[in-house]
C-alpha cells in the first residue's frame, strides 16, 4: 500500500512538473509569436541604414579630416626634406590601402560589428580582444577625439582673430561645444548622423580641391624652387623616421571605421570592400596632391612655423578666400569627429553584448535605436583629455597601441586562414598583401620603441593595465558578491533612467 501511495505521489509530481514545463513552453512560444507579430519599427535593434554612399562618406569623412591639415608639419620635421616627406605620404597611403583591403576581408568573413575587438576575439582569443576594448575606452578614442576637436576649434576661431594669436582657452571651449553637439546628434538619431556625415564629406572634398587647384596652377607656371634638392638624405635619422610615418598614418587613420558598424551596412559583402577601396585610393591621391600644393606655395620654413597649415596656405594662395578656407577645414574636422563618435561606441556595444564589458553598454534606446549608454560613457573622457591634451604627445601615445592591435588583427587573419581554409570568405585578398602589411606594421611599432621610448612605454603600460581588469571583471576573480549586487542594481536603475533595452533582433 505504501509503495502504491509513493508511486501515485511520484506520478502526481511528474504530472505537475510536465504541466509546469508545458506552461513555460507555451509562454515561450507565445512570446516568440508576439515578437513575430511586432513590426520591424517596434523591435529594439540596430537598423541596416548605411548604403554605399554613406559608407564611402564615413570612411572619406573620417580619413580626410584634421590629419591633412595638422600632420604635414610633423612629417616634414621628422623626414627632413620635401621629397622624402612626399615619399612618406605616398608609401603610407599604399600601406593604409593594404590594411584597408585586409579589413575588407575581415569585415566580410566575420559579419559582426566591433571591428578590432571582433576580429581579435574570433582569431586570437578573448584577452587580446579585451585589451583592445580597454585601450579604446581608456585613451585611444578620447585622444583621437581630442586631436581632431582641437584642430576644429583652432580653425573655427582663426578667421576672427587673424593676424593675432588665438586664446588657447577659447579653442578648447569651441572644441568642447563641437564634441557635445555631435554626441547629442549621435544619441538622437543614426539617420541624422549619417546625413550630417554625407554633407560634411562633400564640403571637405570641396576644401581639398580648393587647395589643390592653386598649387597645380603654380607648378604649371614654373614655381618649383621648393622641390629642388628635395631628397636630402643626410638630414634623415633612423630615430625620427617612425615619427614621420606615424604622423602620416594618423592622417590616413579611419580606413577601418566602417568595420565598426558592419551590422548596420546594407549588403555588407558588396558595400564594405567597394567603399573601402574607393575611399582609400581617392584619399591617397588627394593627400599627395594637397602636399604638393602646400610645397608649391609655401617654403618648408614657412610650413614649419605654422600651427594651421591650411590657413597659412590660404593667406598666401587664396587672398580673397583666406577667411573661407579655415571654416571649410573646421567643417572637415567636424566630419572626422562625427565619424569617430559614431563608430567607436559600437565596439563597446559589441564587447558588452559578448560579455567582455558591463551589460548596460549593450543596450539600445527603445525609440531612438542608438547605443546610448556606450555613447555617454565615452563623452566625459573625451572632454577631460581635450582639456589637458598636447597634440604631438597624443599622436605618439595613441599610434603605438592602435597600430599594434591592427597588426595583431591582420596576423590573426593569417592564422585563421591557415587553421580554417574552408571558411567562407566573400572577399579575399592576395596573400602577399596581409603578409606585407603585418610585417611592416610590426616593424613600425617596434621601431617606435627606439625613436620615442617614453610615450611608447606609457602606451604599453596603459595597455597592460587592462590585464588585471580582465581577470577581475570578466572572470569575476576577487570581486565580492556584494559589489556585484550593487553594480547590477545600479545598471538596472540606469537602464530605467535612460530608457534602454537589450537588442531583440540579431542583425549579423
Provide a descriptive summary of the structure in words.
- Pfam families: AA_permease_2.
- The chain crosses the membrane at residues 50-70, 82-104, 138-157, 169-190, 202-220, 240-260, 272-297, 327-349, 370-388, 394-415, 427-449, 461-479.
- There is one protein chain.
- This protein is mainly alpha-helical.
- The chain has a single domain (47-502), classed as Amino acid/polyamine transporter I (Up-down Bundle), CATH 1.20.1740.10.
- 74% of the residues lie in helices and 1% in strands.
- It has 19 helices and two strands.
- It has a two-stranded antiparallel sheet.
- It starts with a helix and ends in a 6-residue tail after the last strand.
- The model is unreliable at 1-37 (pLDDT under 50).
Provide a short characterization of the protein structure.
This protein is mainly alpha-helical. The chain has helices at 2-37, 52-63, 67-79, 82-109, 116-123, 126-161, 168-188, 190-220, 241-252, 268-297, 300-305, 309-317, 324-353, 372-388, 391-419, 432-451, 453-464, 466-473, 481-498, and strands spanning 363-365, 500-502. The chain starts with a helix and ends in a 6-residue tail after the last strand.
